[in-house]
Write a structure and sequence with these properties.
By secondary structure, the protein is an all-alpha fold. The protein has helices spanning about 10-15, 20-40, 50-65, 75-105, 110-125, 125-130, 135-145, 150-160, 165-180, 190-200.
Amino acid sequence: MSIEQPYHGKELLRRIAEGDQLAFKQLVQQCNSMVYRFVETHITVKQPELIEEVVYDVFLQLWLTRETLPAILNFENYLFILARNKGFNALKKELGEMARRKHWEGGSVAQGDGEQLALENKALGLIDEAIATLSEQQRKVWVMSRRNARTYVQIATELGISRETVKSYLQAANLSIKKYVVNHLEDFPDAVLVLFLFFLEARHPLL
């Protein structure tokens, strides 16, 4: 990633870590459009206001955890992973809000609508249920990768295992979660399943 004047690469991240707001402003100006396009293209978020909210959350997270920035080996990769995770969190939240709006706007909810709403709300917890069935090590790796935006190398270093072992654990975890979803196919609407399966598959190619 090319860093424009006045700061470059690691120096820019180091200054941000020290609380330099001008350096952070430079980072935002440089990466804002790139993050916006990534969320719009790869996370299938189309509403401009929702994309802007995700982009805001990404840079807010960077600022709140700025002390850790100099230790990041591949900042562009880290940025995409963070944007991916924030984007999926926004989609999950939007799905829940849509279900609630459907409930309240209907006034008196018909029995069929009520059943559909119950299914959608239950489906929101499906991934968490599946994660709970994983082995301790698989669960650690999955959470660190998908929710904490850690790269394979970072996870391997923190857990004291090889990068290939991290990859193996993550693949096994994804397979187990998919099997859990498939075993509950009759309980959940197709639209929700598509979202969950897309969530499991989506990943930035540099990861």
